[in-house]
Amino acid sequence: MRxxxxxxxxxxxxxxxxxxxxxxxxxxxxDGPMPTDxxxxxxxxxxxxxxxxxxxxxxxxDARGRELIRCPTAGLALLDVDAKxxxxxxxxxxxxxHVGNFDLFPNTRFHLQDSEMAFATGRYMRHKPFRAPMxxxxxxxxxxxxYAERVVFHDGDADLASGLSVHHIGGxxxxxxxxxxxxxxxxxxxxxxxxxxxxxxxxGNPYPIIFREDQMLEGWQTLRRLADSEAHIxxxxxxxxxxxxxxxxxxxxxxIVRLD
Length: 260
Prior knowledge:
9 helices, globular, 5-stranded mixed sheet, 8-stranded mixed sheet
């Protein structure tokens, strides 16, 4: 029997923007406002707890013009998870909004794709479009975690525990990985930035920050193969997630939703 997980999306920040910033092929200007939200995720079973991504802090929010609502670790605390006690954090990719705050998880193992570390530290960072979503201090910090023997590297797909696996997608970055989780409603896929919004996949129109468009488009087919249905695919930044899924309790409404 596979483990069955509870899965939560924890909103920690937001950004007001217009729709043309969310698509490679900008839609009609009359589409108007289309904000994005920022999440980390928690998957836990009776045996295992995984945090997926670590968000960003107030300094980064100020520098990049994002509205920080709360420290992501404060969101975890609302689910009775102390960042200091977390043993496993999956980093979907090394963009600033997914790997900041790694220092708040002092006892964890970070799960990362080989190709993502090579991407973030290699020749492609000579080009501003590829390095702009990175924070060099985050990247250097993760290299330090490697030297401290706290990074678990994966080369492609890997089972991390019963009922939970990571899958290399690429596209948005060279080493973007998604997380497949067994839940009481079936196989769920936390897509992270393989699809920022539901509309990216629905319209066949990728988010414009992209390393390889072919991998992004093929990756959508992989998401559909891994998930039990398109309703089991959770995009990385869509505010609709907070409307489509229930809060675990009334006091967490607008903060956390349960995806399983």
